[in-house]
Amino acid sequence: MQFVPPSAADPYYEGHVHQTGCVATRPDNWHDFFNALARLAFPQTKARINALHAAEIPREKGIRGRLRDLLTIFDEGGAIVACAEPELEAMIRGFRWRELFWESRERVLRGLRFIVLGHAVMEMALEPWAGITCKTIFIPAGADADSSAAQWLELHAAGGTPQLLAPLPIFGYPGWLPENERAEFYADERYFRPFRREMPAREA
User: Fold this and answer.
1) CA–CA separation, 180 vs 177, rounded Å?
2) Are 91 and 104 in contact (CB under 8 A)?
3) Are 36 and 1 in contact (CB under 8 A)?
4) Quick one: which H or E segment has residue 126?
5) CB under 8 Å to 34, separation ≥6 — which residues?
6) Can you give 136-174 as a three-state secondary structure string?
7) What is the pLDDT of residue 19?
8) pLDDT digits (tens, 9 = 90+) for 146-185
9) Is 63 helix (H, G, I), strand (E, B) or coil?
10) Is pLDDT at 8 greater than 80 in this prediction?
11) Please, where are the H alpha helices in 61-144?
12) Within 13 A of 43's CA, how many CA atoms are on the CB side?
């Protein structure tokens, strides 16, 4: 893999990266800078995302499918949640934000680790706003984040859909904002959207 200047002659981005290993990277551009960092930090996951894109594009015949929607959303705004307690995962899937981040605060600090992969989210964090939300997958506590995420993507490729990704408002994590040291913060729907639909059952 190498980072190269963009070229007007470059073919479709994902296919070009897959075929050549060359990642078009604009100078002085935060989005591309964070994408490069993510590729260095999560080489297996980013390679799996690219390979799945490249394999799916010829089958789509110009109509983008749900798997590529999942891949793009995770690539741009994804996070990996290493979770030691199934009940904490259930709180996230159930949008139980106050119960998770306030009432179970100590358990969150002990049993949840958020690992942000999405380069668009990293760019947003330069000028943060209330609605920033990552779309997450879950891995066991202590597992290697990169290889586990790559395996998750491969496992779910056949039936991949964005609905498999659980929304997670990152500013709820204890200590990320001074405001979240108050219980009433978790009632602010600008940050914490209420439950509106059924999340899918826990995936392997």
Assistant:
1) 6
2) yes
3) no
4) none
5) 119, 120, 122, 123
6) EEEEECCCCHHHHHHHHHHHCCCCCCHHHCEEEEHHHCC
7) 83
8) 999 999 999 999 889 999 999 999 899 998 888 899 999 9
9) coil
10) no
11) 66-77, 86-93, 97-98, 105-111, 119-124
12) 4
